[in-house]
């Protein structure tokens, strides 16, 4: 005789199987969801990395392009700092033809400390440039320029570095270059032109007759840390001597304000070594 089936037994067994199936199905769905989420996260991570890399590449390209633009057509390399025609205290003696020279001529030495963005330095240069040239040619006054950077900005910092660079690598063009730098200063102060890029300073040097091979390396050089260190050392030396502002004028190394009483041309005449 067949065993008697308890009512509800088959239904209870079926319900357990269904529950197990549902549990397995839920587990499978959770695994699939987790796999999808992990895949989505991997994709997002990869996309994020690609975006960051793209931004880095863009920034590098922008920097390189900007630097190339700042240098204009001058694509040379930085020159090593091996100063010539520059004294230990970062002065530049002027010879009879406006060239930078290594040694003084023995006449009374008038030193002029200037910042290429300084208003009063520019005024002094305009008032005294011809007198400097006259006495340099006569050899009765030793003019000595001291480029410094007190005020900052490209005209101040790059201009000073360029002055040392030209004195070293194109000494015959030194005074002509400085005159043209101050002409740009005048335009900046009148707000007709902006402060120059390194490439524009090289353009100024070109107009002063600096040779092409020297020009090619000028922008990369004057922007470099090594040449900017020269400017900083020159400025530090200026401060070590107790000087504070520009223009500062010295006579045989000692600060003087006599030049301000009757003007620099008259002062140069008064200190000039008598001619034989």
UniProtKB/TrEMBL annotation:
Query: Would you tell me the protein name for this molecule?
Result: Thioredoxin-like fold domain-containing protein
Which stretches of sequence are listed as region Disordered? 1-33
Provide the Thioredoxin-like fold domain boundaries.
108-258
Membrane spanning residue stretches: 43-64
Q: Which UniProt keywords apply?
A: Membrane, Transmembrane, Transmembrane helix
Which residues lie in Basic and acidic residues bias regions? 11-33
């Amino acid at each position: 005789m067949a065993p008697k089936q308890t009512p509800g037994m088959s239904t209870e067994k079926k319900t357990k199987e269904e529950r197990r199936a549902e549990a397995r199905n839920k587990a499978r769905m959770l695994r699939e969801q987790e796999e999808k989420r992990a895949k989505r996260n991997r994709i997002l991570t990869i996309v994020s990395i690609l975006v960051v890399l793209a931004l880095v590449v863009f920034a590098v390209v922008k920097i390189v392009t900007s630097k190339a633009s700042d240098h204009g057509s001058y694509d040379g390399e930085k020159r090593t700092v091996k100063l010539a025609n520059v004294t230990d205290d970062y002065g530049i003696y002027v010879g009879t033809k406006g060239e930078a020279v290594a040694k003084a001529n023995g006449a009374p030495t008038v030193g002029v400390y200037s910042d290429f963005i300084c208003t009063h330095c520019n005024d002094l240069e305009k008032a005294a440039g011809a007198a400097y040239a006259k006495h340099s040619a006569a050899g009765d006054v030793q003019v000595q320029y001291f480029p410094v950077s007190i005020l900052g900005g490209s005209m101040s910092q790059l201009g000073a570095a360029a002055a040392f660079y030209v004195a070293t690598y194109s000494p015959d063009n030194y005074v002509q270059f400085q005159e043209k730098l101050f002409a740009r200063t005048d335009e900046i102060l009148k707000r007709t032109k902006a402060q120059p890029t390194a490439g524009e300073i090289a353009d100024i040097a070109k107009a002063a007759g600096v040779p092409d091979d020297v020009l090619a390396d000028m922008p990369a050089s004057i922007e470099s840390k090594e040449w900017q260190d020269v400017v900083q050392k020159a400025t530090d030396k200026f401060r070590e001597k107790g000087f504070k502002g520009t223009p500062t004028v010295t006579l045989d190394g000692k600060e003087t304000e006599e030049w301000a009483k009757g003007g620099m041309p008259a002062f140069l005449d008064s200190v000039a070594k008598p001619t034989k």
